[in-house]
Amino acid sequence: MTNELRVRVARRVEEADGVCSFELVPEDSGALPAFTAGAHIDVHVAPGLIRQYSLSNDPSERHRYRIAVLREPSSRGGSAAMHDSVQADDLLRVSAPRNHFALVDAPRSLLLAGGIGVTPILAMARVLHAQGRSFEMHYCGRSAGRMAFLEELASADFAGSVVLHADDVPEQRFDAGRVLADPAGDKHLYVCGPNGFMDHVLDSARRLGWAEAQLHREYFAGAATALATDGSFEVRVASTGLSCQVPAGKTVIEVLAAHGVEVPSSCEAGVCGTCLTRVLEGSPDHRDSFLTEAERAANDQFTPCCSRALSPLLVLDL
Fold first, then answer.
1. Residues 95, 13: contact at Cβ < 8 Å?
2. What are the extents of the domains in the chain?
């Protein structure tokens, strides 16, 4: 990882059923790089295993990063390793913070968190409150027992701006139509959580008249899947003229690596944006969860970890 840091796990806390938080502090006595609300770090969980986790603590803090990890039943190894192997006083390698989910300067904000998606949303709420900006936060979960940081939210100075929605309490269930009923142009919506929850929120918002520019989201898992009908296509490296054929079942990153061209990557699912590459010629077949619809329509960049091509050739700015 570039801009790699070494941190120590100062505390590990069971925050809710299946959710564990990790407080990370510098290995030495120095300060950590600053971050902004919505940022995440890459965590080197095990050799060859890197995962992204959002920072949930106050961005004014330079002495620690706090992440929270949900144990996923279908884990590809990341969440299971964090829960089973990482303990207090362990040393970890992490990246400097990056932010693809930043707050914009808007008079009003609507923050929607589903499950573990509360991590970046919590940091946003802290910043908006500190800045005296108007916001409303809605936190949705299957049950209170599976929702992290409830005590912290209840005691926060902005507790009056937080609404909890537990699926197992009928009167608390989340009603997207009601919460999203006001698509006023001076309001921006931020949503993070499981893909199904986010798709429901975003689809509902669009149907109710929210403009695309008002919608901000961050996915934790990729939805892209390879299709049985995938064909092959050619990629060309603009700087060297190297041309490679990408067959069905292989990613652009895999094929380029086999020819000695390394593209930085992390999630391998089109979520984090680490591998984002400029496209100089051709039409990408976007299968990521990172780019906005407007960015996809521009056809000048794509995520080679999962996306493919609609045209016979893609010329890449590498």
1. no
2. 4-95, 108-219, 233-316
Rounded to two decimals, what is the model's pTM? Answer: 0.77
CA 27 to chain centroid: 26
34, two tokens: 């600053």
Q: Which CATH architecture has domain 233-316?
A: Roll (3.10)
Hey, what are 216's tokens?
Answer: 């901000």
CB 172 within 8 A of CB 150: no
φ and ψ of 27, to 5 deg: -65, -40
In whole angstroms, what is the distance from residue 265 CA to residue 215 CA? 26
Inter-residue contact 300 to 279 (CB < 8 Å): yes
Tell me the CATH architecture of domain 108-219.
3-Layer(aba) Sandwich (3.40)
Which CATH code of 1.10.10.10, 3.40.50.2020, 2.30.30.50, 2.40.30.10 fits the domain covering 4-95?
2.40.30.10
Averaged over successive runs of 10 residues, the pLDDT of the chain (318 residues) comes to 83 96 92 96 84 94 96 75 92 92 95 96 98 97 95 97 95 94 93 92 96 88 53 93 91 92 80 87 88 85 92 95
- For residues 192 and 198, the answer to whether their CB atoms sit within 8 Å is yes
CA distances from 266 to 58, 113, 170 (A): 25, 24, 40
H runs (alpha helix) in the chain: 78-85, 118-130, 150-155, 176-179, 195-207, 252-258, 293-298
Q: What is the reported pLDDT for 294?
A: 81
